[in-house]
Amino acid sequence: MSFRGDRLASLPLPTAVVWFIDEIAEAKGRQALYTRQAPQVLKALREMALVQSAESSNRIEGVTIDPDRLRPLVIGQAKPRDRSEREIFGYRHALTLIHTNAASLSIEPGILRRLHQTIQEDTGDAGQWKTVENEIVELKAGAAPRVRFRPVAAAATPAAVDELCLLYREAVNQRRAPFLVTVAALVLDFLCIHPFRDGNGRVSRLLTLLALYQHGYEVGRYISLERLVEETREECYEALRQSSDGWHSGTHDPLPWLIYFSSVVRRAYREFESRAGDVRSPRGAKRALVQAAIESFAGSFRLADLERACPAVSRDMVRRVLKELRRKKLVECVGRGPAARWRRMPKPSA
Asked: Which residues of the chain have pLDDT under 70?
């Protein structure tokens, strides 16, 4: 519905979106500069993004595993033990497919089904369009469940996906709108179709990554877009709610979703440049990642919070950096034991 007629070409872009797109375009132009320097920090960022993406995208859908199993499953040699671990493992394989083959993966119904098959291998309908109706239900504490959106009917789903993929490719080839606008519209319409019984959210995030890669926006290799979505989950749901209203009749407003979508990409590029640009010595890559994570905490934090923020860094390295910063009186420990909290010390005034 977002691609029919000249909707995208005539969509008035508010100043905020134009600013976002311009800032992202400038950051995209600097990608090569960062990717040529400090290869060790880039490797650490890639590992971190891989772990965080597999964890966050599944945790949004209520799939969680023991934190100690996460890193071995995603970047180690561990084998999954149960269904939750297999879903994390499958998402990791889907990410690897996109990271290594994005340029050759055409956005068409077949790749959507392949991604779903990869992440939902344990289910009987993995890689299959839905055969029963599904609804997007809003759950709030103390309130009865409410149907927020009814997606495309099961019988109409294959044709809807075919049309979406066809119109998306036409919009890209004919440059009807800036690429970020086109990708945002693709993800919005995919979520409104909701073509699978389960796993639509995870496939939508993989589709986001794939489409961005194909247009040269490769920040998702180094910063987990899924983590940023998880951290802004309520904003995501509200933007989707606003932009899906009236979607079936083509009277919807894509702008709330576009503003949210572009803000996440902009935030990812800012974080990437901050983390990559802070590193002066390749040997200090992982130490710099830990220090950057500490700087990102608004208040106090626990050792577990720091480990979660730096999944590609070993526990020993995290503790070593904390000990070093404590010795330099840059952080202090409040309390004792595993639940002790840490906080940054005020910087001395000049």
From this structure: 37-39, 277-285, 296, 298, 312, 338, 347-350
What contacts 137, CB < 8 A, 6 or more positions away?
Answer: 145, 146, 147, 148
What would the pLDDT profile of 14-32 be if each residue is shown by its tens digit?
A: 898 899 999 999 988 887 7
Q: DSSP secondary structure string, 289-332?
A: HHHHHHHH-SS-EEHHHHHHH-TTS-HHHHHHHHHHHHHTTSEE
Q: Does residue 146 come out as left (phi exceeding 0), alpha (psi in the -120 to 50 range) or beta?
A: beta
Q: Report how far residue 304's alpha carbon sits from residue 338's, in angstroms, rounded to the nearest whole number.
A: 8
Model-level pTM greater than 0.85?
no
Q: Domains along the chain?
A: 15-277 (1.10.3290.10), 282-344 (1.10.10.10)
The three-point CA angle 285-287-290 to 5° equals 110
